[in-house]
Amino acid sequence: MQINLRSGPSNSYATASVRRASKGTTMKAAVYDHNGPPEVLRYTDVPDPKIRSRDVLIQVEAISVEGGDLINRRSSPPGHPAYVVGYAAAGTVVAIGDAVTDRKPGDRVTSWGLDGSHAQLRAVPTDQTWLLPAGAGVAEAAAIPIGFGTAHHCLFARGRLSSGSSVLIQGAAGGVGVAAVQLARQAGATVIAVASGEDRVRSVIELGASRVIDHNVESVVDVVRDLTGGRGVDLIVDPVGSTLATSLAALRDEGVLVSVGN
Known about the structure:
There is one protein chain. The protein has helices at residues 11-22, 67-75, 138-142, 144-158, 175-186, 198-207, 220-227, 244-250, and strands spanning 2-4, 26-32, 42-47, 55-64, 83-84, 88-96, 108-112, 121-125, 129-131, 166-169, 190-195, 211-214, 233-238, 251-259. The chain is an alpha/beta fold. Strands 1, 4, 6, 7, 8 and 9 form a 6-stranded antiparallel sheet that branches. Strands 12-11-10-13-14 form a 5-stranded parallel sheet, sandwiched between helices. A 3-stranded antiparallel sheet has the order 3-2-5, with no helix packed on it. Helix 8 links the parallel strand 13 and strand 14. The two termini are 18 Å apart. Residues 4-22 have low confidence and may be disordered.
């Protein structure tokens, strides 16, 4: 889920953000003191983040609420009170550490980290940021690093996907699934996707899947075996978890199953 925090960067605001950070003043952020349901979240003032030598300070303009954010808030006790939640954010660089040479104030970037994104300012290592191309929307950019980064790692670093291979994407209408379908199609693979409901099936087809299986009305294993002549697919990306048995049954001998995020 993308959340736009601002309509666009402001030079005067960026200058003020750097000045505030240098004085050790405060910013607004979404925090929690102990894990639990959404009600544990508070929107409050916290100290501005401090940047280290390899960090950049980002004026946050959009965040992406990721599954990991929800799991951590629900299940993981924070390391300290007023813990700032959030993996992903995009915005404008307003300050850099003294060892940073590849970013400068005014750069538009998207970023990821284990926490700290749901705030007015965010400090992250420069190698955890990516420059936005001209014309890229900041809200869309905020959603790219986690979903597309995870999908890319599953498909290529772990799955060794290549042109002509067959891949099954479980949970294809979710964040990682949506990214995986597009990346696999672009790589020249035959993409079989799993989703539920007519609207989701239609949207995944539009993303480039060769075939979408509605698991509510079809047997995933039967359809995969039919499409592959009984062989099974070369690679499966499974971000669901409860589908493990189905994934194993749909995989060819010595194929690769990447289970992620569950």
